[in-house]
Design goal:
eight-stranded antiparallel β-sheet, seven-stranded antiparallel β-sheet, 19 helices, binds fructose -6-phosphate
Length: 607
């Protein structure tokens, strides 16, 4: 999505703004821009379509301009209103070029506003943001703060924004509604950012604005206002676990994050499971059993949706509680039937995904029980939830979610076991499972060691244009997640199905040129899925089996990835990790930019 960075201090802002945007780069974007204002009211505006490096080169090419632009705002854009063009790139300005604005989110009523404003102003872009710039100009009352108060009453829907008034250099106004906005003081001035991860290298503490709050920076000091009244806020410390890592010897951050998974799992279990006593040992998990839960509804998007769907199998199996995973945008599109005995679980890496956040607001408004499983500490969804657990995956830097999905699935498994123990789950079964979970980081390590073999297989599959991914039971959502990861990283068309659905239509596509990946470790449904494998083999479709090493039908597969020995349930984790390596190497074989897949953004803060 779009991201905001801003600075006011004594020194020149241009390099700081470009470097700030570099820190936000991991989130995905398609164009970037900055504007700086000097104490003498001179303006420096630069925009570029493409990477921040393109913007940096343009800014660098103007280095003979030695003016000190001490106040500035910057932005990376992920196109929503209007194509990726220089004209649509932020910052946007009023017609008199006095006010400059950067904005994250969507202004739902921009068309109505524009219709009105078009009577007085010409528009140069297709964006909703330019409409806000013109609105500021039309409502300006001699003071930017009070003008912005009026402007915000006219805007519908979630956004955060930052505005400079070139006639009042030294002033920046930021408003938060929905999308995050944070402010902090550094030795060289005041900064605003829409991402806490981006500031770990720059600050130790920060202040997070709440919805409808406004921050006004004036000459290296800032104040926060709510409904026009100044309010006090205590700064928060940056969580060390939220600091972005260095790349080290890996080819990409995505690869690094996959190889982080064993230590992520240790973090997830730490302080929550006592492996010596083989029991759950965490207040939040244990308190779950005291709630009157008759049903669970998991609301999330993308990879988090698939993780949620895996969790549903666990809740049904161990706790005997009916559970349904719902895609958050569908939750918003359906009738909500509130239920006091349903636990509504919101699963999100970023904790900021707009559809998940809006779904949660609806549930909270009806007073139903909410539980957040979130990775980013202090994010909106974590702050809104009645109960929550962090997924403790550490900062997930680039676009594709991998280590966090594993962490989410592990948290859901612990929740299911904890609830199960308060219901009918046998203590001995729980102890056996916990004992196995203790070995999971090592089993993942073993899976990662298969990297070179998986790379070889992936090279072969990179020659195909399409692929099916199949699985049954737990491995149905695992197939969904594997398929999502393959398509988003490699751009190969992948579709996932429940293995049993194949013969109800999709089989028509299987041929020598249309391969199928199948998750089928030894377990309850092994034989049934083998029948589906046979159906593909009979049509000469190449088959990649993600299977147990003691599989008895290896001859049916064209290629195999053999999982380390675990129970069927824990091969969900090793199966996912194998598919992550496969997707990564598939993308590398096709020379894709795995850290920054085209058209995608890390955190989807628009609906
Ligand atoms: C895919 C991916 C996305 C996210 C989805 C939800 O690799 O990362 O599908 O899972 O956008 O994001 P969160 O979990 O932040 O709500």
């Amino acid at each position: 999505m779009c991201w905001i960075f801003a600075y006011n201090g004594d020194t020149d802002c241009r390099e700081k703004l470009v470097n700030g945007l570099r820190l936000l780069e991991y989130r995905g974007y398609d164009s970037a821009g900055i504007v700086g204002v000097s104490k003498k009211k001179e303006i420096f505006l630069e925009k570029a379509v493409g990477r921040v490096s393109a913007l940096a080169s343009k800014v660098d090419a103007r280095r003979e301009d030695i003016t000190l632009y001490t106040t500035g705002i910057a932005h990376t854009r992920w196109a929503t209103h209007g194509w990726v063009t220089q004209e649509n790139t932020h910052p946007h300005h009023s017609s008199d070029k006095r006010f400059y604005i950067v904005h994250n989110g969507i202004i739902e009523n921009y068309k109505d506003l524009k219709k009105d404003l078009e009577k007085s102003y010409d528009f140069y872009s297709e964006t909703d943001t330019e409409v806000v710039a013109k609105l500021i100009e039309s409502l300006y009352d001699g003071n930017l703060k009070s003008t912005m108060e009026k402007v915000s009453t006219r805007l519908v829907w979630a956004y955060s924004l930052a505005v400079v008034d070139s006639q009042n250099p030294g002033t920046i106004v930021g408003i938060k509604l929905g999308s995050p906005l944070i402010v902090w003081t550094a030795t060289d001035g005041i900064y605003i950012s829409s991402d806490v991860n981006a500031l770990s290298a720059l600050a130790e503490t920060y202040t997070l604005l709440e919805d409808n709050e406004m921050v006004v920076i004036e000459w290296k000091k800032y104040s926060i206002y709510m409904a026009g009244k100044q309010i006090e806020r205590v700064s928060e410390k940056i969580d060390a676990s939220q600091v972005i890592d260095e790349l080290g010897n890996f080819n990409s951050f995505t690869e690094k994050e996959i190889f982080d998974i064993p230590s992520v799992l240790e973090n997830v279990f730490s302080g929550r499971i006592d492996f010596e006593k083989k029991q759950i040992n965490n207040e939040t998990l244990e308190a779950l059993g005291d709630l009157d839960i008759k049903r669970i509804c998991i609301v999330s998007s993308g990879s988090s949706y698939y993780a949620g769907d895996m969790g549903c199998y666990f809740f049904r199996k161990f706790a005997g509680i009916p559970c349904q995973a719902i895609i958050s945008s569908e939750f918003l599109s359906d009738v909500f039937l509130p239920d006091d005995t349903t636990l509504y679980v919101f699963l999100s890496q970023s904790g900021e995904t707009a559809d998940v956040r809006e779904s949660m607001k609806i549930v909270k408004a009806k007073g139903c029980m909410t539980f957040g499983v979130v990775n980013v500490v202090g994010s909106t969804i974590a702050r809104m939830a009645d109960h929550w657990l962090y997924s403790h995956a550490g900062v997930e830097v680039w676009v594709a979610s991998t280590k966090n999905v594993i962490a989410q699935v592990a948290v859901l498994l612990m929740m299911a076991v904890s609830l199960g123990l308060k219901k009918d789950m046998q203590i001995t079964d729980a102890r056996d499972l916990i004992a196995e979970m203790a070995d999971l980081p090592d089993k993942i390590q073993e899976t990662l060691m298969k990297g070179p073999k998986i790379k070889k297989i992936a090279k072969k599959y990179a020659t195909y244009k399409h692929m099916f991914v199949l699985g049954r039971n737990y491995f149905y959502p695992v197939a969904g997640e594997a398929s999502l990861k393959c398509k988003e990283l490699s751009y190969i068309h992948c579709e996932s199905y429940s293995a049993g659905e194949l013969k109800h239509g999709p089989l028509a596509l299987v041929s020598k040129k249309f391969p199928t990946m199948v998750f089928n470790p030894m377990g309850k449904f092994y034989a049934k899925t083998i029948s589906n494998v046979q159906e593909v083999a009979a049509r000469k479709g190449p088959i990649l089996g993600i299977i147990s090493s003691n599989d008895t039908h290896k001859e049916l597969y064209t290629d195999t990835i053999e999982l380390p020995e675990t129970s069927e349930l824990l091969s969900v984790f090793t199966g996912l990790v194998s598919s992550y390596l496969f997707a990564l190497y598939l993308a590398e074989a096709l020379d894709r930019d795995v850290d920054k897949p085209r058209n995608l953004a890390k955190s989807v803060t628009v609906d």
